Amino acid sequence: MRTFQKQSLTLNTAKQMIAKAEAKAGEIGMEIAIAIVDESGILKAFSRMDGAALVAVDLARKKAITAVGFGLNTGTGWNEFVKNDPILLVGVQNVYDFTMFGGGLPIFVDGEIVGGIGVSGGHYAKDEECAKAGIEALGSTTEPA
Q1: Which of 86, 101, 120, 138 could form a disulfide with 60 if both were Cys (CB 3.0 to 4.6 A apart)?
Q2: What's the Cα-to-Cα distance from 137 to each of 13, 92, 131, rounded to whole Å?
Q3: For residue 95, how many other CB atoms are within 10 A of its CB?
Q4: On the CB side of 82, how many CA atoms lie within 13 Å of its CA?
Q5: Confidence of residue 141 (pLDDT cuts 50, 70, 90)
Q6: Which strand ranges, in their side-by-side order, compose the sheet holding 43-48?
Q7: DSSP-based three-state secondary structure for 95
Q8: CA-CA distance, 22 to 15, in Å (whole number)?
């Protein structure tokens, strides 16, 4: 076999996720940037709420790429993975577009990774809360089946 097929997010799905993440941010009084990437880490959709910090733009994108690239939540997932491995901890910090700031989640559908969402604009725990709202609104999960 010379080719393979992959599942990916539709643009409509990405837009729905952004709307839900923004709604959650509004509920908790935050202005955020949201990046949705497809299964290959390519930007699918992006939004920056009025008032969101400029640094949030790049961080949201990096969080989404990190989450989809490794299939791990940024922040807690990566912290657990590297906490007892100093060589890995230092090494991953040199990977292009990688970040361990929380707020990036992989998106799984039927056990297959189909994209990633990255949210930035506040404390990483609040960023993750908004990212989860985007995923949960679609009935997806952040864990493989």
Answers
A1: 120
A2: 10, 31, 10
A3: 12
A4: 19
A5: low
A6: 43-48, 33-38, 112-120, 104-109
A7: coil
A8: 11
* Range in 5-9, 38-42, 124-128 the model is least confident about: 5-9
Instruction: Kindly provide the b/e burial profile for residues 46-70, where b requires at least 16 CB atoms within 10 angstroms of the residue's own CB.
Output: bbbbeebeeebbebbbbbbbbbbbb
100 to each of 14, 49, 90, 129, how far by Cα in Å? 23, 23, 11, 16
Give residue 80's pLDDT.
87
Give the pairing type, strands 33-38 and 104-109: unpaired
* Helix or strand run (H / E) with residue 112: strand 112-120
Return mean pLDDT, the chain: 92
Distance CA 100, CA 89 (A): 10
Place of tokens 């989809």: 68
Half-sphere exposure of 41 (CA within 13 A, CB side): 13
What global pTM score does this model have?
A: 0.92
